[in-house]
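Case study 2.
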Amino acid sequence: MDYLLQGMFGEKSLTKVVALFDDKASAEAMVGRVLRLPGMEPSQVRLLSQADLKTHRADLFGRKMEPEQSGIFHTAFRAHLVAGFAGFVLGLLLYAYWMNSGHVMVTSSPMLAFIAIVGFATTFGLLLGGLVTLRPDHVRVIAQVRSALRAGRWALVVHPTDSHQTEQAQELLEGSSARVMRTL
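Prediction:
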């Protein structure tokens, strides 16, 4: 499944696992434990504090939460391409099914029916690609992290590269006193 998702997304890390800590010492101790997980690299782990929200560079917080900026562009391109093509193919199949079954609306005006069915299916596929690009699951987690940082808490953000790393990081963080969240 990881392989199929990587084809649609341009990012190496599709999931974020976040733990919110009340104090710096607990957060820093957990950073060391997370880095000892098999295959985990320092670039995959970020520790955020209230100071990260107050930096002069407005995009610093965003880069720590979403470190693969070029990957996001590739995700947008691939998601629209794949979902638009899937919509196109489904539209063709639906058109062919209705044409072969003798549906009156399709057989009476085949060219207009083709344009409408395939056009709308492609459009809905592109809209789905836009939804995938927006990543509403990431927006929810990022908003909660911002809120926690404003309240003086610490956030440990882990960017696992596969489902095995995701499970390991989540299990490790859930074993602590932290509040744990993750994206899809």
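The longest strand covers residues 17-21.
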